[in-house]
């Protein structure tokens, strides 16, 4: 469908901006919610150190990188057992044991998933109803959480954009990688990439800057990047785009501009790669590579691989709907975020 880039009158964008910023403020977790999450983490930690005194218990995911939005009180926890083999079988066995241990410790709805791609135990902390996902030695997730957290520190527009996009994705029911749409982590990478692509750029590419001040190798993956973000404060200040312009740019890109046939979004390089460069041109098993988002560290991992023909259609329709609503309505927010 034809569209006119930049067609929105300035006054309308300014009004929308005000509404969007108010919504971002409303979506921030309250201090009480953060406290409940902290209490849950401590309850879990004390259950785990009894069994593994040498373990470390890390928080990762959105509660650790400032990108959580309220009423989504899940926390992601990683049990780090130094010296443990990192193969999926061993992790699966630990997950089974964890399940028993957490039940004995009084946790509720304990569900161990030892055979998942990333073995996990899901449960609810009885005292305060916080939902928890525990994984074992999930070091890549700890490192990618830190990368996202470092990007968040660089320009406040990233947090704002992620907040709106995540909220939209939940409302429109396109935020479930188990059901063939995209994970929150994937949407955040899409937002970072968009801000790397703006002219002038709002975000740098931390993995191309030298020297790599953070260095860590996880299995076969080198996770080095420049993490001295204090030195990069003000990087994006030459770009004056407002949140409403960026929200529009996000949906415009994914509705009409993205080259779904060939392009791979790569935060690692700050640009686009091609599917042939990645050898993501054909279906292998259940991995279809219809929408390609490269994981910044685990380079064989396409975060869009869960999208199939049907959900690809759903996603595309939702991106177009959002872009049309933003383009056509004078006051689009309610319609944009209408529950599916
Ligand atoms: P929510 O606020 O919970 O929706 P989140 O950022 O916590 O968003 P998830 O709960 O989906 O995102 O995932 C938690 C973390 O797990 C984010 C990232 O560090 C890691 N992670 C999730 N999915 C993947 C993946 N496919 N590959 C690598 N790491 C992942
Ligand atoms: Mg999470």
TrEMBL record:
Residues 16-152 form the Poly(A) RNA polymerase mitochondrial-like central palm domain. It is found in: Cytoplasm. Residues 242-301 form the PAP-associated domain. It comes from the Eukaryota. Belongs to the DNA polymerase type-B-like family. This is Uncharacterized protein. The chain holds residues 517 to 856 of 862 of the full protein.
């Amino acid at each position: 469908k034809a569209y006119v880039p930049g067609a929105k009158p300035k006054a309308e964008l300014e009004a929308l901006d005000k509404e969007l910023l108010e919504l971002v403020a409303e979506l921030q977790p309250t201090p009480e919610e953060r406290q409940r999450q902290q209490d849950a983490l401590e309850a879990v930690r004390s259950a785990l150190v009894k069994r593994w005194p040498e373990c470390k218990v890390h928080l990762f995911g959105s509660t650790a990188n400032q990108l959580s939005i309220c009423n989504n009180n899940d926390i992601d926890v990683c049990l780090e057992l130094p010296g443990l083999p990192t193969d999926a079988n061993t992790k699966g066995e630990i997950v089974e044991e964890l399940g028993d241990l957490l039940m004995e410790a009084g946790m509720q709805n304990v569900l161990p998933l030892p055979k998942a791609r990333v073995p996990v135990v899901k449960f609810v902390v009885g005292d305060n109803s916080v939902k928890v996902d525990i994984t074992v030695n999930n070091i890549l997730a700890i490192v990618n959480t830190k990368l996202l957290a470092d990007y968040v520190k660089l320009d406040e527009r990233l947090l704002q954009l992620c907040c709106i996009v995540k909220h939209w994705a939940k409302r429109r029911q396109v935020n479930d990688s188990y059901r063939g749409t995209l994970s929150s982590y994937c949407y955040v990478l899409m937002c970072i990439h968009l801000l790397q692509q703006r002219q002038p750029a709002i975000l740098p590419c931390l993995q191309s800057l030298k020297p790599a001040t953070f260095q860590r190798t996880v299995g076969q993956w080198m996770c080095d990047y420049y993490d001295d973000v204090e030195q990069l404060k003000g990087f994006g200040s030459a770009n004056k785009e407002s949140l409403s312009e960026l929200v529009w740019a996000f949906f415009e890109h994914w509705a009409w501009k993205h080259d779904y046939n060939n392009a791979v979004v790569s935060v690692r390089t700050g640009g686009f790669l091609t599917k042939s460069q990645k050898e993501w041109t054909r279906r292998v098993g259940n991995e279809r590579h219809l929408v390609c988002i490269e994981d910044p560290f685990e380079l064989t991992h396409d975060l869009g691989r869960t999208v199939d023909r049907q959900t690809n259609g759903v996603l595309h329709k939702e991106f177009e709907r959002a872009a049309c609503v933003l383009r056509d309505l004078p006051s689009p927010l309610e319609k944009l975020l209408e529950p599916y």
